[in-house]
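Notebook p. 47: complex prediction with threonylcarbamoyladenylate.
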Amino acid sequence: MARPAPAPSPSRARIAAAARALRAGRLVAFPTETVYGLGADATSDAAVAAIYAAKGRPRFNPLIVHVDTLAAAERLVVFDARARRLARRFWPGPLTLVLPRRARCPVSWLASAGLDCLAVRIPDHDVARALLRAAARPVVAPSANRSGRVSPTRAEHVARDLGRRVDTILDGGASRVGVESTVVDLTGPRAVLLRPGGADPGAIEAALGARLRRPRGIATGPARGAPRAPGQLASHYAPRAAVRLGVRHPRPGEAYLGFGPMPANFAGPGATLSARRDLGEAAANLFAMLRALDRRRVTTIAVAPIPRRGLGLAINDRLARAAAPRP
Ligand code: TXA
Ligand code: MG
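Predicted complex, structure tokens below:
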């Protein structure tokens, strides 16, 4: 079998130039293990405002602050014992912690949409960490797509969505995890799962020694046969095509996103997220395949049922939002 090509890695000079652009208030897209981020200097109101403008993102939706070390995170937010345990277990990695802002936290209030808590994480990607080190300041980075659209897992996705709106796009190849970080709110007595993502909620609960509270509208557990009411869901991660979920037999004319082997008689545009039913592989393929099928300009993308366990929770969450009624 052919070995996968090594991931492209921007030169040190290119990363240094990107860090200078960040420090000058410009926007830099960079790879992380989850998805590509659209980065800006978190301490600059103007730079953070430029993020909201470039994405067309509502100002009430706060951003994640990326740092390179736990010490840097502790300068921004207040860690308790639970937060330290999760940070030690999952960082660098696809877990975002929402914690109270410190009194002299230098991060722009725009980044947290005026809230007195802040979302932070250390990404597990060499290019991201080299950039953060060189920038030597906290960097806000939402996914580098227009608001509401499918997240980018390749540099060319960013170029297509945001090309002219960013100063630099650092290419680090395909994102390894493929779905965004798991977001856990630790500002109250009980930890709350705000967004399922790359870190398994079961592993987080094991590390905490406590159950995560799940707000209504978050798909959890192996709750087979209990689909969430799409009416509760904000449309997000949406391709141009309509999305129909839980489909074993696509209709003529539909594109099909499978899980497991493709149906033998299927002739339309389609792909399988994972022929061997591997949820990690499916997560890594999800957004790129949704984008590729959308480019075929079909009216509907039908999607196979995906198990609701491990990374399947995040995959089902993104798919449910992709299928939710559009505003
Ligand atoms: O994997 C990821 O998390 C990627 C990469 C680039 O790091 N970033 C990402 O950012 O997905 P974004 O902006 O697309 O999603 C941030 C999520 C949103 O659901 C937002 O509402 C939540 O984090 N969030 C951010 N700050 C928050 C806060 N202070 N309180 C509650 N939720 C917050
Ligand atoms: Mg996003």
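Notes: Confidence is low (pLDDT under 50) at residues 219-232. The chain has nine helices and 13 strands.
Next step: compare against the earlier run before touching the bench.
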